[in-house]
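Action item from last week, closing it out:
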Amino acid sequence: MDKLIYLDNGATTFPKPEEVYAKMDTFYRSYGVNPGRSGYDLCLVAGSILEETRQLLTKFFNGGSDPNRLIFSYNATDALNLAIFGLLKAGDHAITTNVEHNSVLRPLYHLYKYNDVELDYIPFDSGGFVDPYDFARKIKKNTRLVAVNHGSNVIGTVQPIAEIGRICRERGIAFVVDASQTAGKVPVDMEKMNIDVVAFTGHKSLMGPMGIGGLYVREGVEIRHTRAGGTGVRSAVRTHLEEYPYRLEYGTPNLPGIAGLNAGVKWLEKEGMAGIHAREIMLLKSLRDGLRQIDGVTLHCQDDLTNHIGVLSFNVDDLEAGDTGTMLDVDYSIASRTGLHCAPLVHEQIGTDKIHGSVRFGIGPFNTKDDIDTAVNAVQEIAMSRKQSSSLSRQG
């Protein structure tokens, strides 16, 4: 592990800041009890961590004045399921994009297939961006939801969220943004970007642990609850509670995860998110420039790195992405992500679905220039080896 070059930060940032490990350990050892279920001191301390983190994230996303509308869930997929199933019903129409992760695609397709919800997809251009006015052209009388991935986990493009949000706001259509890749990298300002619901996960660029994520639901937007269970308050009520946060929270929360997320966001604020992002883009540029000079390597949507996050996908000639990833791991101790990255429509549009996806490098706060140089050299050696093998095969 000491020699591992970790370039799979698009999946999960690793390692975490030391403050995150310390916060989780201290919390669980000292205050690891249920919040809001009783009035003894440890319970009150646990509850204070929960409420402080609601306030912290409400401010982080500039969501509004009510931190109770900050909802905790298991991850962004869980949060998006709560939002999508709670906003759409039979006969409604929804619009999404080809950039989406399956955390959006699959819930929407489920509603299309089983619940009579109409569905349209917006393609992206050669640079990897969607056109906001394509959404305006697709809107119908029964359009109730637009769901967009803020930053692609495959090609790294950051979509024009504010412009799409303005179109939705003017027409009274709920606008849900999947900020899984961008939260903690670039600003996600609900007010300025006209976002109604933002979904986030803790284990990526918010620097928290796995198993924690959530939503912020703007005041005036109501999501039906599609689950029911314990809330720890008003237990005599037979139906699930309507008020936030209980409306969309069920059972005992992941308090150790919330404590770790609290520490991760505070670390970001201390270090400066803008500076971290600028450094990652500098490394991305070095990675892009190195890889595109290698004969036989194809990059996807990397010509202009304006409005990008530190995610890059590539292929080596006709080599299976999985084989490239295995060589990077076994021969060079470089961790990457290969395949379709849970975003099949991206790969279908760029044509990599036919070769089982691409290889993805995801840059994180703890990567170095040496990591990038080593990765470029490794890909160059793999490409040269592939070229020599093909030449020998033709000669034979």
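Closing note: The CA atoms of residues 81 and 107 lie 6 Å apart.
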